[in-house]
Amino acid sequence: MKKALLLVSVLFLIALTSAFCGGTAESAAASAFEVPEGGYDGSEVTLTFYHTMGANLNTVLDEYIAEFNQLFPNIHIKWEQVGGYDDVKNQISTEIPAGNQPNLAYCYPDHVAMYNLAGAVATLDNLIASQIPVTHADGTTEILGLTEEQKADFIEGYYNEGCQFGDGLMYTMPFSKSTEVLYYNKTFFDEHNLKVPTTWDEMEEVCAKIKEIAPNSIPLGYDSEANWFITMCEQYNSPYTSATGDHYLFDNATNREFIKRFRQWYQNGWMTTQTLLGSYTSGLFTSTNETVSYMSIGSSAGATYQRPAAGADGKYPFEVGIATIPQVSDANRKVISQGPSICIFNKDNPQEVVASWLFVKYLTTSVEFQAAFSMASGYVPVLKSVTDNEIYADFIAQADYGKYITALSTKVCLEQQDAYYTSPAFNGSSTARDEVGALLTKCLTIPEGSDVDAQIAAAFKLAIQKCEYND
Amino acid sequence: MGGKNTMVESRRPWMAWVYLAPAILLLLVFTVWPIINTFRMAFLVGYRGLEAVQGKTFPFGFGNFTKVIQFQDFLNCLRNTTLLCVITVPLSTFLALLISVCLNSIKTLQKGLQTIFFLPYVTNSIAIGMVFAAMFNIVGSAHGTSNQIIITAGIVNNIITFFGGEPVNWINSGSTYLANMTVMVIYIVWNALPFKILILLGGLQSVNKQYYDAARVDGTSRRRIFTRITVPLLSPMIAYVVITGFIGGFKEYTSIVGVFGEKMGPANDQGRLNTMVGFIYDALENNHQGRASAAALILFGIILVVTLINLQVSKRRVHY
Amino acid sequence: MAETFNTMQEKDMGSVVSRQKVIAVLAKVLVYAFLILMAVIVLFPFYWMINSSLKPLEEYRLPIPTFWPHKLLLSNYVNAFNTAKLGRLFLNTLYVGVVSTLLSLVITILSAFAFARLEFKGKNVLFAGLLATMMIPGELFTITNYMTVTRLNWLNTYTVLIVPFLVSVFYIYLLRQNFLQIPDELYLAAKVDGTSDFKYLCKVMIPLSLPTLISITILKMMGAWNSYIWPRLVANKDPLNNGGHRLITNGLRNAFTQTTGEVNYPEQMAAVALVSAPLFLVFVFLRKYIMKGVSRSGIKG
Fold this sequence. Notes:
Oligomer: heterotrimer
Number of strands of chain C: 0
Helix content of chain C: over 70%
Largest interface: B-C, 104 and 106 residues
Helix content of chain B: 55-70%
CATH topology of the largest domain in chain C: MetI-like fold
Strand content of chain C: under 5%
CATH architecture of the largest domain in chain C: Orthogonal Bundle
Number of helices of chain B: 13
CATH superfamily of the largest domain in chain C: MetI-like
CATH class of the domain at 62-136 and 171-317 in chain B: Mainly Alpha
Radius of gyration of chain B: 25 Å
Structural class of chain B: mainly alpha
Low-confidence stretches of chain B: 1-6
């Protein structure tokens, strides 16, 4: 035992001394990606692409990869479906230190901020501006960068999301977008002459009415607590986070006030959320027995989950209507902008980066792909001209409250594109997102009979502390 | 250390190193280096692997430790871990002792019962945690409000209502800390019993019968036999299960994941039941290796101190 | 229980014998009652798991539960197997378990032999050093090991699940103690016959230490079956995507949290039962070795 202790203390000493002289000295500041002379040289490269697409979308992707390979047969695309968005982030952040991150990945701004800690994401500015011609397999050429028309075709807000990282550089390209919409049980609303709420005040009234009509129901389900909190901040114009200076600004009177109000709703049995329910609220919304809800706020890309299962005759038990989510005031309409962008990772071989760019450019500027992907997924295309596409226009025109619900949700999304917002992205913004979601959940369940204000204030404080700790 | 003096001098003394090579190589990489590196990272303030890749340097200091200790969540984890330890170790040791003494006093069914009591040991603590979660579950919504809708309750609540009680929200959203801890204590004790019974019963069976015969002749009461003979004779085993119990208790993690899932708490208050080990892994997943290391060293320190105290106490109390 | 002990104090020698008999019987009854009650409590979760796993969801959700399913539903097991994709997870775990156990045995035997039978400089210091590492909690190793395997590019491979934990100082210690008990005379005799060390190890020491080796094997396999934290960190990819290496425990915990709609408890319990079954089988057949191994180790897996 004595010897063992001696050995441990020796190890301690070694460890301490090594700690003193620890840390490496070289420094490599994040620098803009330089396009190699001559652009893409036609060499053979294999690109890995991490995404979260389901099986039906993979078919679409494969189809267009084949198309892409008609132009560039030497660029091989190997995609990998890596669970959900967070799985992609976790996977990549462990791969970066080993240098075996993929070439391309689905990303959210938070993720990019994290990858940038290691300077792993390639900047796109030089690629976009490049006028170097690239030759296709059939002999035709295109320029490596984006033409003015191509740039102008992007919906501006989406395109600008790529350069919101504080340094003005472009890191991501928008891929497909979605937002949150209000799904309501149209059959029930028509039957009881209820008005679809457009403001939160109206929502309050409708919830009260529904609770009277169906006491055993939970009128409203809201899937994402974090989205709810952040959207309310935007709608009230009250601070949430900032990319510069003090990052975490969400502990303020306005925010505590709306949380207090929603807590009352929860206590009244008017609403629930995904976390509190223990499953997606669409389950409650589409349920036809026991407790049901009559409204559900969820992703516009999940419309098919909000539709009840069809009966044996192919008819749906009730019709589903889709509307914009309630607002605080009509003057400041805000809905969250969701959906993945694509980022390209730096690689030792610059040809891989250039090839990745060609693929990203192909996917994001191809009207056909954007239309096909949107129709298969319910995501909204990022190009303006997609709406002019004939097949797409037909798709939107057939929108209804059952069979073509995806078209309906896409339509509702397209109608409110001016209201989309994004929140600042910085290292730690995903923590803030997680924390405000947990905060909202926690506050909703503060029991009656306790000092609600004090508990809400304490919960806000703790959330801020957690954010700052993880920064 | 055994060995005596009959060890034959090998003609090729380096052969020993050949035999040891695989073990030493692996230990150097996966045990020795981590120890050194943990110290290194713990004292490099704000050390993050992702930034280190880029070549960022970090100052030396105690910053990671102060940051961790000042974090309310860490104190929360420390409290949970300590509470669980302090409650479950004595409780399970006492119960195990009682069961062992009873088992030792019977002949019929002894083997069968012994096997049953060992059964929880050969289980997957995540899997059975899920069974406990199902047993304590309560399904419905708006828990804890005047509008709560209970659709169905788990077997424990069914039993409570059968005896005329009110169903308790044990683990779902809106449940109280007390209720959560109660479930965890029950589960951890249930899980800890088999090992303790095995050791204590083994100890009892090796106790010399003569002590008891002598006591019986003297007409000593059973209680006195228990406190004056059984416990002292068993004291090395009791010390052993208490020490290993504390060491294991401070590393509590998977049992909570089993019952509550990876969110480590009821849905409305995630992380409420997080523990020291959970805290370390959270820091690791957030790429804060410096703080993770600091927290790991703090945990190591706590375990070391608690073990030393235990050893000190048993030195005075244990009769060999 | 306390009363039975208290009433033992008696003065009147005449009635002592008969009264003591009554008390003894009473005590026995109480002892059995207590033990059986505890046994029921210990067994209850297992019973409930099996009972629930055989019910249809509707029956599971009855306000007054049924203590034996009215309608036996074995399809829960089939569904659970498919929902949790247990097949691939079983195979992954089995592969990792078998390979790591075999390699671990080889390393343990070689090291234990060196420590028990061979003479070399620094032996005692080295052995003490090994034992000292046992005091350090595993979490401390995990942080750096995670970075190491990342740098070695081992994430999401079988290697990462096997290699870092091949050496168990405790098993080396356990086996060394066992080797030391083998009489020196055998070794000397073998030396005189000119048997090589290695041959002696294989022909004499291993067969004589078989019970310990079996205990180690079982504990190591159980460890693989129950491991959760490390695999979750380093190889938690869904097996359905390009051959993930996720292990059974991780798959089990995740399978029922990501589904939409309400959790189907009977199915979940069926999955739990399926995962627990192999452990029970091993226990039934190899109880002796497990209990012996555990009583000396004090570690779970």
